[in-house]
Amino acid sequence: MNYGWSHFLDDGDSSGWANRGGWQNYQNAYAPSEDYSNSNFDIRHAIRGEAIYKLPFGRGMQFLNNNLVADEVLGGWQVSSTFIGETGNPISLTTAGYNSSNNQSGSYTQFANLVGNYKSTDTGPDATGGGQYHSLKEWYNLDAFALPAPYTYGNFRRNIVAGPDLTNVNFSIGKGFDLWPERNVRFQIRASANNILNHPSFGQPGTTLGGPPSAEIGGANINSVTIGGRVREMYGRLSF
Q1: What is the number of domains present in the chain?
Q2: Of 98, 122, 128, whose CA–CA distance to 111 is shortest?
Q3: 233 in a domain, yes or no?
Q4: What residues does 189 pair with on adjacent strands?
């Protein structure tokens, strides 16, 4: 098992690996340092590991080691698991087709202005109905942002908001039978499950803004997952 804590800052990076391409544009290509902020790879906390355990029953083990029936039924079983848990990927909020600076960088490259607390609960008269901050209906407070004035740049830098975390546990259990030990003929049965806890890891919220009150284009809601539901399989293998 390993645990990592990190904070990665830069003014731009890109990779197609593991859907972490992230924000790849400069708001102002003449001043890329103004994009200096959390990296697309800035995962603050991550824990990953694997475990393999042979159950202590049957021939050569601590318990029920002198009974042929017990060995056939309970002996030789092995369980294993892999698991991961990490905080969310950063996201950048842009003003979609609104190009406030009127430069050549075009759509989806301009940041919004921060005019309120993006972590607050959106419950005002123009609330989008989401409610609590970091809810699936409203991951951040949309009404905390406004479109920049014409010929100005937005002040809410890239990758300040982080998306949902990711967790996943896979599990398997199997047993081997020595059919013909002298010839190393062995049969194994195994059952496994991906995401055995059937725990949803949600995708990123909308990131394109149209400005308050409630004129957002992409919205702050979440309607996707990054890891699907539980998948199970059972199989046998004959080796010789």
Answers
A1: 1
A2: 98
A3: yes
A4: 175, 236
Residue 124 lies in a domain: yes
**What pLDDT digit, counting tens, does each position of 67-119 carry?**
777 777 777 889 999 999 999 989 888 887 666 666 655 555 788 889 888 88
Adjacent-strand bridge partners of 193 = 171, 232
**Structure tokens of 49?**
């590991």
Contact 141, 120 (CB under 8 A): yes
The whole-angstrom separation of Cα 4 and Cα 186 is 40
What is the pTM for the complete model shown? 0.76
Q: Using an 8 Å Cβ cutoff, are 171 and 80 in contact?
A: yes
Our CA angle for 205, 229, 81, nearest 5°, is 110
Question: Measured in whole angstroms, how far is the alpha carbon of residue 154 from the centre of its chain?
Answer: 28
